[in-house]
Design goal:
The chain is α/β, with parallel strands linked by helices and 340 residues long. The chain is built from 15 helices and nine strands. The N terminus is likely disordered.
Length: 340
C-alpha cells in the first residue's frame, strides 16, 4: 500500500519541519496497517474463557502482569507510548504512567467481552450529547460518528440500552485485516444484536454500501486518527488527503477522507468517544463537529468547510487526550519520529 502524491507531500513536509530533509525521505505513514498483530490465539481464547466463566473481578487480576509484560517486552510500542505521555502529561511522565495506560488498554479489551454479551449491569455509564445524534437516526438521515483510538468503541453500543433507543443501527468502517484474531473471537461470543455491522474500507464498493446504510437511518462509525493507507485505484473520496496540523504540541498528519465522504453524502459528523475512567466506569461522549447537509457548489468553500471540520476533530481529540491521558491506544509512530 502506498500514499498518493498529495499524501506523501503533506507527510514529508511535516517530517522535514521536525527531522530535516534526509530523514523525511524515510517516512512511511502506513506502517500501522501492515504491522502484525501482537496476539497469541491460545492466550486470547484463555482470557475470553476466564472472562465468561470466572467473571470480571477475577479475570481483572490477570491484567497487571499482562500490562507489565507488554511494557517490558514491546520496546517499539513503549517508545511511542513514552513520546505520547510526555506530550499529554508532561516531562514528568514515567514508567508508572506507561503501565497505567497499558493497563487501561487491557481493561477495555477485557470489557469488550461483556459489552458484546450485553452485560451493561456490570458498569457505571455516563452518556452525554447523544440526543442530536439520535435525532438524525430517527429522521432517517443517518450520520457519521468519527472517533479515535481512545477508550472503547464497543461501549458506544451501550447507548442503545442506556437511552432505550434500541432502534439505533451502528456500522463500523474499518480495515478488517489488521486485527483478525481478536475480532474473530469477539464476534464469536457477541450477541447477534450487539455485533457491529462492518463496512470494509479499501474496497471499490465501500462508499456505495455506506450511502445505502445511511439512507436507511444507520450510523456510520470510523476511527479517524490514522493516516489512511490507500492506492491510486481507490476513489479520491476514500483516500482523501493528509492535512498536517498541530497536535499535542507537534505537527501530525490527519486524513480528511472521512470528512470528504460526509460532505459528498451530505451528512452531519459527530465526534464519539467511550472513555475509560478506571474500575467499571465509562464516559460516553458525542459532539457535533460539522454539518454537511447543505449542498455547496463552490469548490473553495467546500474545501474550507472540510478543513474546518478536520481542525475541529483534532482540537476535540487533543482535549480528550489531556483530560483522559490514559485512554490513548495508538501505539505506533504517530508523529513519524522513528525516521530520525
Amino acid at each position: 500500500m502506498k500514499h498518493t502524491d498529495v499524501e506523501a507531500h503533506a507527510v514529508n513536509e511535516a517530517a522535514r519541519a521536525r527531522m530535516g530533509q534526509g530523514a523525511a525521505e524515510k517516512v512511511d505513514g502506513g506502517d500501522w496497517a501492515r504491522a502484525p498483530e501482537r496476539s497469541n490465539m491460545l492466550a486470547l481464547r484463555f482470557i475470553v474463557f476466564m472472562a465468561l466463566v470466572c467473571g470480571r473481578h477475577v479475570t481483572r487480576l490477570l491484567l497487571p502482569p499482562i500490562a507489565l509484560y507488554f511494557l517490558l517486552f514491546a520496546p517499539t510500542q513503549r517508545r511511542h507510548i513514552k513520546r505520547y505521555l510526555f506530550r499529554a502529561i508532561g516531562p514528568h511522565a514515567g514508567w508508572l504512567d506507561g503501565f497505567r495506560l497499558i493497563h487501561a488498554f487491557a481493561s477495555t479489551v477485557l470489557d469488550r467481552v461483556y459489552f458484546l454479551r450485553g452485560r451493561m449491569d456490570l458498569f457505571e455509564l455516563s452518556v452525554q450529547g447523544n440526543e442530536p445524534l439520535e435525532a438524525e437516526a430517527v429522521a432517517g438521515r443517518g450520520a457519521f460518528m468519527l472517533g479515535a483510538h481512545v477508550g472503547s468503541f464497543e461501549v458506544l453500543g451501550a447507548c442503545k440500552q442506556q437511552t432505550h433507543q434500541h432502534h439505533l443501527r451502528l456500522a463500523m468502517l474499518m480495515f478488517p485485516d489488521n486485527a483478525q484474531r481478536i475480532t474473530a473471537i469477539l464476534n464469536a461470543i457477541a450477541l447477534p444484536e450487539l455485533r457491529p455491522h462492518v463496512i470494509a474500507l479499501g474496497r471499490p464498493h465501500s462508499m456505495l454500501a455506506l450511502r445505502d446504510w445511511l439512507d436507511g437511518g444507520g450510523l456510520g462509525g470510523m476511527l479517524a486518527d490514522r493516516t489512511l493507507p490507500g492506492s491510486e485505484d481507490q476513489p479520491a473520496s476514500q483516500r482523501g488527503n493528509s492535512i498536517v496540523l498541530p497536535f499535542l504540541g507537534q505537527p501530525a498528519a490527519f486524513n480528511d477522507g472521512p470528512f470528504r465522504l460526509a460532505a459528498l453524502l451530505r451528512r452531519k459528523v459527530f465526534f464519539m468517544a467511550g472513555l475509560y475512567r478506571g474500575g467499571a466506569r465509562y464516559d460516553i461522549q458525542f459532539d457535533l463537529l460539522a454539518d454537511f447537509g447543505e449542498r455547496v457548489t463552490d469548490a473553495a468553500e467546500r474545501e474550507r468547510r472540510i478543513r474546518a471540520a478536520v481542525e475541529a476533530y483534532v482540537a476535540r481529540l487533543e482535549t480528550i487526550c489531556r483530560a483522559y491521558p490514559y485512554n490513548w491506544f495508538n501505539f505506533h509512530d504517530f508523529w513519524l519520529e522513528d525516521a530520525a
